[in-house]
Amino acid sequence: MSKTKAGGTSKNTTDSPGQRLGVKVWGGQAVKAGDIIVRQVGQTKRPGPGTFISRNFTIHAAKDGVVAFKQRRVKKFSGRSIPRTEVIVE
User: Fold this and answer.
1) Using CB atoms within 10 A as the burial measure, which of 50, 56, 79, 85 is most buried?
2) Per-residue pLDDT reduced to its tens digit, 13-53
């Protein structure tokens, strides 16, 4: 005879590791061409001059220089303007 009652199976035992998103290089720091500046899901920060964005919305440095962050107002399709951070390599 069993010592414990039938409890069924637990379904929430698996867990995925974190994606390590966020800003990797802060303003005022030097970068080389190809370095990752921001890893993000969706376009929360926008690429500016001296940067480019890859398919998974990661912002990379296109040239050697110093990173800077600026606030910009961007118009949405509805006509509303919203603030977005622009990543620049100078």
Assistant:
1) 50
2) 788 899 999 999 999 999 999 999 999 999 999 999 999 99
Encoding tokens for residue 34?
């190809």
The 10 Å CB-count burial string (b at 16+, else e) for 37-60 is bbbbeeeebbbbebbebeeebbbb
CA distances from 71 to 57, 59, 77 (A): 18, 16, 19
Token pair 């690429």: residue: 47
Domain-wise residue ranges, the chain:
22-89
Position of tokens 């964005």? 53
pLDDT tens per residue, range 20-31 = 999 999 999 999
| Cα–Cα distance, 78 to 76 (Å, whole number) | 5
Whether the full predicted model's pTM is greater than 0.70, yes or no, is yes
DSSP 39: E
